[in-house]
Amino acid sequence: MTILLSTLNSRYSHASLGLRYLLANMGDLQERTRLEEFVIGAKTTEVVERILAHEPAIVGLGVYIWNVEDTTRVVAMLKRVAPHIVVVLGGPEVSYETGEQAIVKLADYVVTGWGDVTFPKLCGDILDGPKPLMKVHAGVQPPMVEIAMPYALYTDEDIAHRTVYVEASRGCPFKCEFCLSSLDKTAWPFPLDDFLAQLESLYQRGARLFKFVDRTFNLNVKTSLRIMQFFLDKLAAAPDDPVYAHFELVPDHLPDALKASIAQFPPGALQFEIGIQSFNPEVQALVSRRQDNAKAADNIRWLSSQSHAHLHVDLIAGLPGEDIDSFGAGFDKLWALGPHEIQFGILKRLRGTPIIRHTEPFAMAFDPYPPYTILATDRISFRDMQRLVRFARYWDLVANSGRFANTIHTLLGDAPFANFMRFADWLYAHTDATHRIALERLVKLVEQWLRDGMWMSDRDARALVASDTAPKSAAGNTATVRQVRHLAA
Length: 489
Description:
Blueprint: E1 3-9, H1 17-24, E2 33-39, H2 44-53, E3 58-62, H3 68-81, E4 86-90, H4 102-106, E5 109-112, H5 118-128, E6 136-138, H6 156-161, E7 164-166, E8 169-171, E9 187-189, H7 192-204, E10 209-212, H8 221-237, E11 244-249, H9 256-262, E12 270-277, H10 281-286, H11 293-306, E13 310-317, H12 324-336, E14 341-346, E15 365-366, E16 374-376, H13 382-400, H14 407-412, H15 416-431, H16 439-452, H17 458-469, H18 475-488
Parallel strand pairs: 1-2, 1-3, 3-4, 4-5, 5-6, 7-10, 10-11, 11-12, 12-13, 13-14
Antiparallel strand pairs: 8-9, 15-16
Helix pairs in contact: 2-3, 8-9, 13-15, 16-17
């Protein structure tokens, strides 16, 4: 074995699609290439020891916003104990602002952007000469038909215990400045028949959870319909052997043909991640986000009321030009549309994204360390931004967890954002914590807030929370919720 492909995933259930693409496209070097994945938080010494056990000549590491700090320590230790090993970096975190990064200075080579063609060629040059002189190699984007698909490289263990990531296309035609996909010129589809054949193979091997990473799944409706029909056919053929699919949807593009297809899916089979980010037209214009808010709202309302799809809808706090009142108004509007989950995100300055152009005009201060979260803007002070961070965490614990499905409606009342912000401020004052709050303690705290903050009687508060926390007899419903949350993760 000569080449080791590796990365540190955010959790074990996440199998790296990027590494499998590289392995699938190694050509003559594939037999000399292996793949081993780790999880962030693992001891650096143990990671390095396992890498060295392969006795590689080249180590290729996928670097992302969630693992760059851990990976930097791995590279630093590798170069101390085995300086002869050639370290090649790739991934979005090192593809932009490359020269500023400590991890790049430690490594031997970097591939920016697409690595399917460039990484194998670089490895061949390192091994057989002539040895490359340049440290940074811009990834060559090949025609999509020439990229070998990686799905056969999912092991039986992957299929049984991990999320199977798939993509029918790469890229995005939209220019939202907070997103790395804004740097793409368009979306590039893989040959559809070939892709569907790969899905069929995965299904026959036992895959039942499919998470699509396409940024614009419903951009080409004809393609979307064929892919969704694939899953409908499986559900029809084996209704007792359910299949689950996760897609990211453009919120204002849901024609009738796609609605008709979505309406055929039974409960628990379909999840949509929908990026709203902001309902403020001025903020949308500032970050180059094109979105018909009225259509987006109508489509979310339809999906919520007329389909069985589980809806996971995103908002971002801290965008330029948005204050707390504007964000809160958007939150209230979204809550009224009835999504199952609102993913309350805090803006991050991803390397290379155009959002940086607003730094001075809007006094945007970002954390200099990953994940580069916004700390303050001219509209939101540092203190208030931390209140929003805590709001997001408590929202996950109380609302998105599904543990308080009845209580949450009373808690939010007719002013959802303001009321939950009051609760979040109170909860932090009483716990001084946003993590490691045991469920039993959280239940008692929610009861206490209903009494102290919402003036409910002790009996009514206990009864309301008990309606959520009492053991449920519908085990099937619990299983469905568990599957959907697995996809969301």
